[in-house]
Specification:
With 585 residues, the chain is α+β, with helices and mostly antiparallel strands. It is 27% helix and 21% strand. It is globular and about 70 Å long.
Length: 585
């Protein structure tokens, strides 16, 4: 696995031709904050894992003080459930039989996450959420119809969510159905493999890649290649299934930074060096309950041909050297902190095919002074005569009928393709101009998934919440909609405001990148009784001037959020109270 024959043609990269856009370029070669250079004992750089019988396991000498999840991996290799067909036998057992033995109980509660299956023991005992792999968020009408057919059979327990990593999650799945579902996924070109726990998550790219008139580079080939490599073309790749913790990657292809590079473990930032196209590298961005950090420059540049070898080298460094104790300290940035950025960089370099890394270039291609474009609504593609239409999916939740209808619209008006976004919305690309009016008059767009939602609704994101997730402290999706509707009755907003909701400190809803973020917690009402509440975060930014939001107000009862959010919008975002509007008319 140390040699690579895949090559990309170097794309033609041109500055934007739009005269209305300023031509200031962002330079991301020097970290604003980076771990200091530290002395590292040579013994610390000994790989902590070794290959045995085709799988990577933690060496005995490094097992002291490891966390419970690491012990579960040692007791039984999770990937055997897929690669050695263990899922087929497990699916034949009743839940009672499964819960009677620790091994099988750990299988359904932990190891099945390597197959993208998450048991909802707390709120939906015996049912699973299944997370797919959907590189760059690109999917087809056939895939969408298949997923709809899966969730439809589960009635009120079945639904689907668009995730904050351009991905599908489907809900309501029962274990006996899993082997057949996996076969069905394969038939339509999908997989759920290696999408949970200590694995590489869905590779994120520009949602309008290949059709964006202003794109820097088409991110789809890179995202596809990384995903195929990580999963060995959906057959399972045990070289990268025993990471210390989850790991996120994105390829940036837009000036808009739709890909959110600053919150990924590895981000590729397009840049020119000596006339060659490639990428400067950011590393270490992550969210967790105890710590959130933005990615920092690795001071490295790779050509387009070396995207995959660099990904492999960073993953091997993390796999070999990462900490496996306290789960709150096992993300890759903790390793960077411990080693220092230069030692970490040298460990990555020694795992490259040529045993070295070029230094970063100052010729970044992402324009810093760039007004982020709204992809919702109707927009021209780079292909003459074609447009794409961005649809707002309220908090990313869909039912089977919604998915079937979206598939029909993609076939009728486009080319059978749909694009998912990190803001939990969906784009229909490749629509002919002559078909636009008919598409906009479709009932689904009039009644459910508007291309022109209200200003506050269009920036609304919400995690699963405690309807399905056992870790969530509060309900999020319905509440996010309800609070936003209440706020819209109180104030009028004239510019976009992004509001994100997350049910717990794991922050799957990414509240720290929102203008206003809500993190679920328990609070006390006016009678000192415990009620569902939220910590409010303020000031998150995305784009070239990215910044993580900070805590603004703690433990606000959810029932009191409306007026408080309205006040925040007036004080910080120029909103106008509606009663004042009425009085001035």
């Amino acid at each position: 696995m140390s040699s690579f024959s895949v090559r990309f043609l170097a794309p033609q990269v041109l500055p934007s031709t739009s005269s209305s856009r300023p031509k200031t370029w962002v330079v991301a070669t020097a970290p604003t904050t980076a771990p200091a250079s530290v002395e590292v004992d040579a013994g610390r750089l000994e790989p902590r894992v070794e290959e045995r019988d085709g799988y990577f396991i933690l060496k005995e000498k490094f097992r002291e003080g490891i966390n419970p999840q690491e012990k579960i991996k040692i007791e039984k290799e999770p990937m055997k459930l897929f690669m050695e067909k263990g899922i087929e036998e497990l699916a034949k057992l009743s839940m009672e039989e499964i819960d009677n033995a620790k091994t099988t109980k750990d299988d359904i509660d932990v190891r099945l996450k390597w197959l993208g299956l998450f048991h909802r023991r707390k709120h939906q005992y015996g049912r699973f959420m299944m997370r797919l792999k959907l590189p760059n968020g690109v999917t087809t009408s056939a895939q969408t119809r298949y997923l709809a057919s899966v969730i439809r059979k589960y009635g009120k327990d079945g639904c689907a969510d668009v995730t904050t990593r351009q991905n599908w999650q489907i809900r309501g799945v029962v274990l006996p159905d899993v082997p057949e579902i996996i076969k069905g996924l394969e038939e339509v070109g999908l997989t759920s493999l290696q999408s949970g726990m200590d694995n590489v998550r869905n590779p994120v790219g520009n949602p309008i890649a290949g059709i964006d008139p202003e794109e820097i580079v088409d991110t789809r080939p890179y995202c596809n290649l990384i995903s195929q490599f990580i999963t060995a073309n959906s057959r399972g790749n045990p070289f990268f299934t025993n990471l210390p913790r989850k790991w996120n990657v994105c390829i940036v292809g837009s000036h808009d930074l739709y890909e959110h590079p600053h919150i990924n473990d590895l981000a590729y930032m397009p840049a020119i060096k000596d006339g060659r196209f490639g990428f400067n590298i950011l590393v270490g961005g992550f969210f967790s309950p105890k710590r959130c950090e933005e990615a920092i420059p690795l001071d490295a540049w790779v050509s387009g041909d070396d995207v995959l070898p660099l990904c492999k080298a960073v993953l091997e460094t993390f796999r070999d050297l990462g900490f496996r104790g306290n789960r709150q300290k096992t993300r890759m940035m903790w390793l960077i902190d411990e080693l220092g950025i230069e030692v970490f960089r040298s460990e990555v370099a020694k795992r490259m095919p040529q045993k070295e890394l070029e230094r970063a270039t100052s010729e970044d291609l992402v324009q810093k002074q760039w007004e982020r474009r709204d992809y919702l609504g109707v927009h021209p593609q780079k292909q003459e005569g074609l447009i794409y239409v961005g649809l707002h999916i309220p908090v990313g939740r869909l039912q089977a009928d919604d998915m079937d209808e979206l598939a029909r619209l993609a076939d009728t008006y486009g080319t059978g393709e749909l694009r998912l976004t990190v803001e939990q919305n969906i784009i229909i690309p490749n629509v002919e101009n002559s078909k636009l009016e008919a598409l906009l008059n479709e009932p689904l767009l009039k009644d459910r998934f508007s291309p022109e939602p209200s200003i506050l609704m269009k920036g609304l994101v919400a995690c699963t919440g405690n309807q399905f997730c056992g870790q969530a402290i509060i309900e999020t999706k319905a509440r996010a909609l309800k609070v936003t509707e209440e706020v819209e009755r109180l104030v009028s907003v004239t510019k976009p405001v992004r509001m994100h909701w997350t049910g717990c400190p794991n922050t799957c809803g990414q509240v720290q990148v929102a203008d206003i973020g809500f993190m679920g917690c328990m609070a006390r009402d006016e009678n000192k009784k415990p009620v569902e509440g939220a910590d409010i975060f303020l000031g998150g930014r995305i784009g070239s001037d990215s910044h993580l939001g900070e805590l603004y107000k703690k433990a606000v009862p959810c029932k009191d959020l409306g007026p408080i959010v309205a006040d925040i919008l007036v004080e910080h975002f120029g909103a106008v109270r509606r009663e004042r509007e009425e009085g001035e008319e």
